[in-house]
């Protein structure tokens, strides 16, 4: 089966912040997990480069939009690599191949009779690149997200007949109750549709930085139409000489809640208008908050993900954001919270379990994992964890799956406390028992590490190597399935404790 997962494409009007790394890591966790299961995965991310957000930022810096896009797109590409994301392609909406397919699809929407010339009159936020209704404005006429004063605009442009898709969209929602999750977001999108849909601008007349409208090159295609199409266009040119569309389309999207309307309303309507299959699913996550506010460039409360990774490592960042904040809801993160979880869970629980297990096998069994059957009580306690992780990740419950794994990590630490191998080692007659305990620990560690691999690929990879069991396929995630007898390798301390002063 194919599994095509996407992130939103990021605006290049500013440097990346932790909020941007968030969706990319989430998509990577799912992509890696599905690859473990042997699925045919395609993982897409990239940058959204046209439109006012970028044109205006470039103007403020006194450079061309293309220069700004080239510079910042590189920063996002660096971030993707630095968080260890295994994306199969990085799309830029300024890629000529993308632009060509955008024009083709928009032309098809036009040829199918869903476009007309009209006049837009109303409010527009250049930072959101979004048309706002009066009801959405705050404090008189400010953008509810960017809190900047919006001007009333009047412009002749091309319109997409979104209103004509009211019924087909309602049918889509009725037929597929889980096509947008969590449920609250499905309800939000559906009630937006039921309120009655207005047609939307498909082009902008005043802007030059964009893809020209094929039948009227005096206008450029509205940036959201151009951007949404990235999910579709990428498959046509990601592999040279090969069109991957039939193999991977339709996509599963991960998005933040601020861009729900575009993805859950406008996007499926556009696809219907172009006679293209609508996405498989849309999962909507919440915000990472700092002091209870959305982390965002315009509010000036951003965390630099590069700095965090320099200090704590990539795996720690990948672990922390999904452990601390329930994926799907909003949640606060902080440097102090980061440090607490690092010490309490990565250093004391997982790291310590690994170092104790390896040290004891080294000391008591010359570094060779005993070959005995797995402890039955522990087997019974760990049975089903892999199935539950899988079920949770199938519904994008990244935090819930991690909690399942962490319960197993804690169970293993309790096993060490209960069995006290250091006492067994002093008792000749307990040699068999000690073999059993050490095998169970090596095996338990292997088991949780295979499950944790999508979350923390680097450290789990090193640990599995050291255990002499590098296989990360999901079928190997069965407690007791790997035989003993492996000789342990070296392992540098995985998550050395951070002293509070060093993290300040
Ligand atoms: N370019 C559009 C998306 C086009 S997709 C066809 C865009 N870009 S963005 O760079 O502003 O935001 C990209 C994503 O980052 C959004 O999903 C947004 O929700 C997410 N985040 C930005 N700040 C965030 C947090 N503080 N927390 C979590 N996610 C956040 O919108």
State the major sheet. Answer: 7 strands, parallel
Rg result: 26 Å
* Helicity range: 40-55%
| Content of β-strand | 5-15%
Q: Care to count the β-strands?
A: 17
Identify every distinct bound molecule in the structure, by name, code or SMILES.
5'-O-[(L-methionyl)-sulphamoyl]adenosine
- In whole angstroms, the N-to-C terminal distance is 47 Å
Quickly count the helices: 20
Mean pLDDT over the residues: 94
Choose one word for the global shape.
Answer: elongated
List keywords for this structure.
504 residues, alpha/beta, 7-stranded parallel beta sheet, 4-stranded antiparallel beta sheet, 20 helices, binds 5'-O-[(L-methionyl)-sulphamoyl]adenosine
Structure explained in plain terms:
The protein is α/β, with parallel strands linked by helices and 504 residues long. Helices cover 49% and strands 15% of the residues. The chain has helices spanning 18-36, 52-61, 65-82, 96-111, 166-175, 183-194, 223-228, 230-237, 245-248, 260-273, 305-312, 314-324, 335-365, 376-382, 385-394, 398-419, 421-424, 431-452, 457-466, 500-503; strands at 2-6, 10-11, 40-48, 89-92, 115-125, 130-132, 152-160, 180-181, 200-201, 203-204, 212-213, 216-221, 252-256, 281-285, 288-290, 293-294, 331-332. The strands form 4 sheets. Strands 1, 2, 3, 4, 8, 13 and 14 form a 7-stranded parallel sheet that branches. A 4-stranded antiparallel sheet has the order 6-5-7-9. It has a 3-stranded antiparallel sheet with strand order 10-12-11. A hairpin with a 4-residue loop joins strand 5 (115-125) and strand 6. The chain is elongated and about 90 Å long. It starts with a strand and ends with a helix. The model has no long low-confidence stretch (mean pLDDT 94). It binds 5'-O-[(L-methionyl)-sulphamoyl]adenosine (MSP). Residues 8-11, 19-20, 22-23, 48, 227-228, 230, 255-256, 258-259, 287-288, 294-296 line the site of 5'-O-[(L-methionyl)-sulphamoyl]adenosine.
